[in-house]
Specification:
two-stranded parallel sheet; Rossmann fold; alpha/beta; globular; 10 helices; single chain
Length: 265
Amino acid sequence: MKNSYALITGATSGIGLEISKDLAKRGFNLILVARTTEKLVQTSNDLSQEFNIKCDYFSSDLTLIDSPDEIYQFTSQKKYDVEILVNNAGYALPNAFHKNTMEDEEKCLRVLGTSVIALTKKYINDMISNGGGKIMIVSSVAAFAPASSLQSLYGPVKTFMNRFSESLSFYNKYGITSTAVCPGYTVTNFHTASGVQAEMDSVPSFLKKSAKRIAEEGVEAMMRGMKVYVPTKTWKIIVFLLKVIPHSVFRLVSRLLAPGRYDDI
């Protein structure tokens, strides 16, 4: 398609930025979505110059209910065909469930869940009309782990996102694929922004993977149309063990694999 683009949410840092770079390297034009206009301008300029692609941006706060519609209206007015949709934006609340306000929970759920559904719903009809498209949902290994005492809604939402992504396989006949990418601990600003950097610092280094590696493996999985993908051999093994080891046994090693997440409230 002449005016086709890849749209990435949470595109100016961490995994989202590395996904943007990987897609730009593959020759895709980009639409970057994030909250901070200054970062969007700089990142857009950098990517367009380095990779010789078209790169536009839209400032949006996905905690707000109208944001997905505003993003879609922006791309429609510009007549951009979104061939690839990357739902990457996300954060987590640091406190135990009873300490978070309902407003905070709703905002977090909107970013992690309903905005993903809304953006997918907006663009999937266009993908059907255009003869295909690719969707990536950046999920998490937390989708496979036992419920934790901190960030109690994060894992369940990611499990939901995996199932949602899998449900989109019914659109394969239209040339549309959806891939849920489930990284483990990744070195980004996510943990600082979510208030759990101390727990991240306690994680053994062999469990921490670079955002660049996660992005490259995730994009390749999306291009191949895989339904659910866990990047790196380390985390593939851990996810396999999480599926077969009783949760009671997992609690014994949780201080190594997930410091702080299974402490008593």
